[in-house]
Amino acid sequence: MKINTFMKKSILFKSLVDYLYFLNIGGFFLLLITIPFGLIEINEINGNDERWSVLAISISCICILTCIVFLRGVYYLRKMARHLLTHKYFSKQIIRSLKISGTHFLLAGVMFMVIMILGWIGKLSEGLLEFVYDVNLMVPLFLMIIGLFFIIQSEALLVAKNFKEENELTV
Amino acid sequence: MPIIINLDVMLAKRKMRSKELSEHIGITTSNLSILKSGKAKAIRFSTLEAICNALECQPKDILEYIDPSPN
Hints:
The complex is a heterodimer of chains A (171) and B (71).
Chain A: H1 2-34, H2 42-45, H3 54-84, H4 92-125, H5 138-168
Chain B: E1 3-5, H1 7-13, H2 18-25, H3 29-37, H4 45-55, H5 59-62, E2 63-65
């Protein structure tokens, strides 16, 4: 009964991660395809500027990099979810995927924070000093927390795996 | 690991087969094989007691410590 519930949860988890991955990858490639063909006018995004400044270009580059890092994190989470369905909870693959996924989420969170700081510096250079309590501030924080949690969880799983092996090799 | 299992030697001395011993002490042959091959990470006192009882020997006849740094 408990295993059935666990299996249902695992299947739901895998499905949700799959949706997240495909929606993100779809959106990312759509953006990459539409911008070079001029379907989206990039000046519309930053309406005040006729030409993009160096800061705006660097922010955009970091944004794309962050997106790639986040997607890679979700990819490894997907991989982990797939292994979870095989009932090998303490396998090397799960531990490795969870660790890589966590590292990517942590990195994505840090990069997101850098983007926000750069944006703040950009506004400061225009002579606008602002302190805003924004919901967007929670996203990088949450990403960093989740990333760290995954890394800790992978280390805990490694300890559990060693205990399990020791227990199995006790005669 | 510096702990050596001399179960093979004792089995040969008592002219007993692994299967007989496993049946006598109530553990599976695969577990006995793990113990004989030295892959085991730990041994329960109850298992050691059963082996000593079956082979009529002392724990020192089965377990041996070898110094890993021979100087």
